[in-house]
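Notes from the pairing session

We agreed to fold both candidates in a single pass and log them together. This is the raw record for the first candidate, unedited. Please don't reformat it; downstream parsing expects exactly this layout.

Candidate A
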Amino acid sequence: MQAILTKYLPATDYRGSRIKATCSSGSVTIPYPHDLSGQAVHRAAAEALVTKLFPGTTAPLLGGGLPDGRTVFVFDHPFSKE
């Protein structure tokens, strides 16, 4: 099992703000989803990483914040193919 860490990346002169999701198998960075707020923003990035690594799967994710500002997600139970 792998934990998924998400982190807010602020805007630069060249890119808008983003959310990065990382686990030991890889990472994905998505544009900041302005239509969402709070933990839902980080959940969107975690779900994008799950989709990238395991296409066609669904997995309930449980998440929470860490003191350094990142958010961590873990699978509630084993994921399944759709």
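Candidate B (folded immediately after A)
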Amino acid sequence: MLTRRRLLQIATSLLALPSSRLLNASESALINRPVPASGELIPVIGMGSSRTFDVDSSTQSLAQLTEIMKIFFDHKGAVVDSSPMYGSAEARIGDVLRSMTQQPKIFAATKVWTDGRERGIEQMQTSARRMNVERFDLIAVHNLRDWKTHLTTLKRWKAEGKVRYIGITTSHGRYHDELREIMRNEPLDFVQFSYNIDNLTAEKYLLPLAADRGIATMINRPYQRGQLFRASRGKPLPALATDIDCTSWGQFYLKFILGHPAVTCIIPATSKAKHMMDNMQANLGRIPDSTQRVEMLKIFRDF
């Protein structure tokens, strides 16, 4: 496991990488962050599937999702996150992956969201079939549901090589106190929670604790379910956006999150190809330093 000191050294060096313009995906400027448990580097912009992939299996739906995932992989995306809670999302991801003639390099992540040991095992096996995954890179307990039971299973599966990383997630602030206790006492590789420029709660305890414990962080709801775009609608991008290689508000909001060195990966979800293209540009170029993040926060709060 990487030590906290080494993790922060790596994160600081990544933040300091220079760039004078917005780079193309074909150029070798992909922003990666290390998974503390192993040192493995993963791209910082992943893909969520909540709501956006919960669609039918019609030709039209699959064509739309295929275009989205093709853009994601063509721009060197890797982390794909889903859950049984997301309706048909796992199945649609699997449908698209099976249809691809050349299988992309994927960091496959899902969750277990049920009660009981046997139901949990059955659900995770079903998720693998649905997503066309032989072995998940990450399985996390979703929203702390029956977490003691499922973490016991996941720890055994990891020891047996059935899953590479294990974790726990929440998207609800009311679970933060319990989540912190789990982070302090369980051998987690990943933790997932909400964090964005309008919801800084995670900065108080969760992000520092993750850094202290050597736990990778996966950030959901980076756009506060669209609320951030409503706040900035019609507003011109500030001059600061150029300094951090942003050409849209979406990239601005993602880069703000990436400016925190304890953030490992962000998983924005979208059902539109143009939005996926925009998200992936945040995987390139400069990242704001602490002074620039203060300025970004002020800009947002002055709307």
